[in-house]
Amino acid sequence: MLVPVVDHADGLAILLTERAADLRNHPGQIAFPGGRVEAGESPVDAALRETEEEIGLGRAHVEVLGYLPDHLVISGFRVTPVVAFVRPGALLRLDPVEVAATFEVPLAYVLDPGNHRSRMRPLGDGHVEVFDIPFGKRNIWGATAGMLMTLCALLGDAPVEGGADSATPAPRT
């Protein structure tokens, strides 16, 4: 799974997909591009291959930075999030069988705790706290929100220009 951070001149943004409505697993959900690791592939190779297959983002536009911790999903999958900078301006070609749309969320918006909505979800005999990140008419939730919350925790006190009302982070130096 690729966590694409688009490196715009005016700030960083997270590139997300809206999955096609006809998919068997997770139809219509907001997700990062990515999928299964094939035999002999590393998580990076799988993330880059799947991203190119799903949204047409070629490896030449991607600079891999590293990994977030593995994320275990309720559906039984273990996801290895690969974080990468993406140069802006790449022409995306969406596979309509897998992806209905792509969109970007400013990283400052994701990092702002005021945009995180906590809720309790039943799990087994108890409940677990999960987060939603509403953005416009879309809601980022589930594994995608969980991985973004992990990114927020790892970035911790990263400086973000403009405070809670800003949707533009400080440029990367």
| Strand residue content | 35-45%
Q: Which word captures the global form? A: globular
Provide the gyration radius in Å. 16 Å
Listing every helix as H and every strand as E from the N terminus to the C terminus, the arrangement reads EEEHEEEEEHEEEH
What can be said about the biggest beta sheet?
6 strands, mixed
- Mean residue pLDDT: 87
CATH topology: Nucleoside Triphosphate Pyrophosphohydrolase
Structure notes:
This protein is of the alpha+beta class and 173 residues long. It has a single domain, classed as Alpha-Beta Complex (Nucleoside Triphosphate Pyrophosphohydrolase), CATH 3.90.79.10. It has 3 helices and 11 strands, in the order E-E-E-H-E-E-E-E-E-H-E-E-E-H. Strands 1, 2, 3, 4, 7 and 8 form a 6-stranded mixed β-sheet that branches. A 3-stranded antiparallel β-sheet has the order 9-10-11. It has a two-stranded antiparallel ribbon with strand order 5-6.
Layout of helices and strands, plus pairs?
Blueprint: E1 2-8, E2 11-19, E3 30-31, H1 43-55, E4 62-67, E5 71-72, E6 78-79, E7 82-86, E8 99-106, H2 107-111, E9 117-123, E10 126-135, E11 138-140, H3 142-155
Parallel strand pairs: 1-7
Antiparallel strand pairs: 1-2, 2-3, 2-8, 4-7, 5-6, 9-10, 10-11
